[in-house]
């Protein structure tokens, strides 16, 4: 098996090609935002704080606020609904795990346009009951992020002696809330943080569901502003990607810190 491992040169070549695959479009977009006729300048970036263009960028700020609210609600669904359910299935109902996994991963094989067709009648009733605020999209986004969040959390569950930790805590008199929050959650920190990051990234990048359900989020706002000022749409796209990258670094840092604290 050792002879099948790629050489250092092969790994470098693959890494460079993958890096170029992501870097070239981003660098091209960044250079585009500096274009000012036949020269380069910061005039377009300076326009982001120009009061005269505030009305042009207003949809983006509204969409960004809605997307951040949706990200918080979606992460709450993952952490307080999906994660405890997964722990319960693994501890108490292991025979249900294949069926549960199939149901959770099913949205991965359903196109967003098909998902919206099924959700449209439901959101008609949600609109009558809870209103048509953008935050209601969190129910649909919670379904969309299920496969990605499940894989992240399940990887941490498989790497931890979940049953041993739970039984040890219960034998010492801890209640189930204490077991979940103070025993199991710290050991699943990396998976929970990864699931949260993926949820935020999916929410910030989702367009189809929000567009077809007529809700204003970051991506639909970028489309509107792009028709007026293409430079603004490109700049806000880069800023959103930078935000996700910084969030990834912060979550990775928190995950490593948590691992050091929980490692005996």
Please give a handful of descriptors for the protein shown.
single chain; 264 residues; MetI-like fold; two-stranded antiparallel ribbon; 2 strands; 78% helix
Q: Give the biggest sheet.
A: 2 strands, antiparallel
The secondary structure category is mainly alpha
Number of alpha- plus pi-helical segments? 13
What would the average pLDDT be, to the nearest integer? 85
Please indicate the percent range of residues in DSSP E strands (runs of 2 or more): under 5%
In CATH terms, the superfamily of the largest domain is MetI-like
The CATH top-level class label of the largest domain? Mainly Alpha
Question: How far apart, in Å, are the first and last alpha carbons?
Answer: 32 Å
Low-confidence stretches: none
**Estimated radius of gyration:** 22 Å
How many domain units?
A: 2
Quick one: overall form?
Answer: globular
What is the H/E order?
HEEHHHHHHHHHHHH
- Going by CATH, the architecture of the largest domain would be Orthogonal Bundle
Helix proportion: over 70%
Main-sheet strand order equals: 1-2
CATH topology descriptor of the largest domain? MetI-like fold
């Amino acid at each position: 098996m050792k002879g099948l491992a790629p050489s250092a040169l092969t790994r470098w070549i693959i890494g460079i090609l993958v890096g170029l695959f992501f870097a070239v479009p981003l660098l091209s977009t960044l250079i585009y935002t500096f274009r000012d006729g036949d020269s380069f300048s910061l005039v377009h970036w300076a326009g982001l704080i120009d009061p005269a263009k505030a009305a042009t960028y207003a949809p983006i700020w509204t969409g960004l606020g809605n997307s951040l609210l949706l990200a918080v609600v979606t992460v709450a669904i993952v952490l307080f609904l999906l994660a405890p359910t997964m722990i319960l299935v693994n501890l108490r109902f292991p025979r249900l795990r294949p069926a549960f996994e199939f149901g959770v991963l099913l949205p991965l094989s359903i196109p967003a346009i098909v998902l919206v067709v099924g959700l449209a009648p439901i959101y008609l009733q949600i609109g009558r009951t809870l209103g048509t605020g953008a935050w209601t999209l969190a129910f649909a986004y919670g379904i969309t992020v299920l496969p990605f969040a499940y894989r992240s959390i399940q990887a941490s569950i498989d790497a931890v002696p979940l049953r041993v930790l739970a039984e040890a805590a219960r034998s010492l008199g801890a209640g189930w809330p204490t077991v979940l929050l103070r025993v199991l959650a710290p050991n699943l920190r990396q998976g929970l943080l990864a699931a949260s990051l993926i949820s935020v990234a999916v929410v910030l990048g989702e367009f189809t569901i929000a567009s077809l359900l007529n809700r204003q989020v970051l991506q639909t706002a970028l489309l509107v502003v792009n028709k007026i000022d293409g430079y603004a749409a490109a700049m806000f796209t880069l800023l959103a990607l930078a935000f996700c990258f910084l969030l990834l670094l912060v979550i990775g840092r928190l995950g490593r810190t948590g691992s050091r604290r929980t490692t005996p």
